[in-house]
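Repro case for the chain-ordering regression, as requested:
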Amino acid sequence: MNDPPRPLLLSALAGETVPRPPVWFMRQAGRSLPEYRALREKAGDFISFCLNPTLAAEATLQPMRRFAFDAAIVFADILLIPLALGQEVWFEAGEGPRLGPRPELATLRAGLAAIETRLAPVGETIAAARAALESSRALIGFVGGPWTVATYMLEGRGGDRAGARSLAFADPEMVDQLVELLVEASVIYLAMQARAGAQALQIFESWAELLPEDLFQRLVTAPHARIVQRLRAMGVSQPVIGFPRGAGALVAEYAASSGVQAVGLDVQAPASLGRRLQSQGLAIQGALDPLLLRVGGAGLDRRVDQLLEQWGQGPYIFNLGHGVIPDTPIEHIERVVRRVTGA
Amino acid sequence: MNDPPRPLLLSALAGETVPRPPVWFMRQAGRSLPEYRALREKAGDFISFCLNPTLAAEATLQPMRRFAFDAAIVFADILLIPLALGQEVWFEAGEGPRLGPRPELATLRAGLAAIETRLAPVGETIAAARAALESSRALIGFVGGPWTVATYMLEGRGGDRAGARSLAFADPEMVDQLVELLVEASVIYLAMQARAGAQALQIFESWAELLPEDLFQRLVTAPHARIVQRLRAMGVSQPVIGFPRGAGALVAEYAASSGVQAVGLDVQAPASLGRRLQSQGLAIQGALDPLLLRVGGAGLDRRVDQLLEQWGQGPYIFNLGHGVIPDTPIEHIERVVRRVTGA
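-- result from build under test --
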């Protein structure tokens, strides 16, 4: 008997020659799907939903039933880490996350020991989803980037992060300590996800934008490098996809110094930049505009073809440059996945 | 008798060797100054203020009395063009601009003939400010980038421009025609400003971010190139500073193809990118973080020194990466200007 086929995503991440780019979409599980909205209604508050392995595994698998995606990503939230560390987190309907007062660093630090137990349900979600998923499809675990998570912890909510960026200037020691604490938490959490069955790990640094070069190095590139280094030191060998959204021209430095195996590119990434990263032995992922996915039409087809043409020869994972927008027509997602997979 | 000294800004823009980088700040005229706030109270609505040459010249000159800036920029607003073309524009206190329904393209096009007369007060502001300004200091005229202005005209207000970007995908012909109309309006308006005494011209493309490469080329780089080309064809020889804020890694393509003499860099621009542009014969301008200017302290001094060190040998205009934040302490501005000018 032959071994089961290796998931295309993992081959691409390993830099192997693949018959076509694998495809998955950030936020492929979520409000764009009617079955998700039905599940969400039964699930109670959002945090309880994320920490219920049965429901979260179901949300993880829903898009895999509908679309020929090559990878699933565990249904969870980047703010589970502050929650596990002892900062209150809740979601206001239609307004996004809210966080309670930030505990002292020492209190948060004491919370590190509790990460594995408090986030054990995410491990159970991963185990359940992995067991249900065909062996040809990969399962991705993830964490929010330390800086991005820190901005929420510092500001208590989403926004323009001017408060957090100001603090990075005004109180660099405190911000650096918080980011380092989140590096440690991320390592514990990602290692647990890997043990539970995650086959690749993504760092979502959603707010990498608007940082001057020195801050970007200090708050994004170096912390990601520490995460990758420590995972390897612990024997965690899963490939890491780093996604510094909005990093602009700083992506090149990030790719060279972060130690990740693949770089997620946002909608703005030039073709030449992606090819440069590929030539340096990195896989790239992205960068279809979710607005164009929502608009659809011939322009969407043309852009899909262009992305496949410009990057398809190197290690390339077809994806969006940001998450699926909730009211995106399902037919547009189907159409793009068919175009990429040739199915 | 010797000729009066050439303004340092113009020497830097011409690529000449200068004893130190010239310095000015975007939004140096405005709410960070108490004398501006006093003037603003007397001025009535914001549009009337911009179109009152006496008051607008006073606002232009206020920062020049307080600080040793090497250049003044005419006090005006990027939304004067839609106003002149016949779309209603007003400012809600504390909320920013609002625009009335967008007239048909044909109606807007008919408005082109009225640009020079309707915006004649800006020419008078420039003439008055130029007459009052020492000859060693330059006066800058400006226009909003066609795409940025189009986003306001399409959406009726500021925001995340998702509506305008979606339209660029969904109705490219209409958006292209609107942008081309704004290119024509910009050329007429900038030529008028140059005749009135503006010695350099800046294009503020404030919303260059989040555009995929093909849209960026179509909506930002190519329109800027058409503006520069047509100005030159009309005999307008003033140097043009293009500021595609948020263009990230696309700045390199912009610099190569837009035809501008200087590129404004935002807070994120890596040192290496700026040096590359300088080595290609372009002047660069920016990129101090206005948040750091507001925070102040030793970190501000260090960053000023770093910018002078990394870019000061090439043609470099010291500036911010975005506008002065209204509650920035005046002492911080003074301190930076002294540090750059050595005065």
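Ordering looks correct now. The beta strands of chain B are 71-73, 89-92, 96-99, 138-144, 200-205, 240-244, 262-264, 283-288, 316-320.
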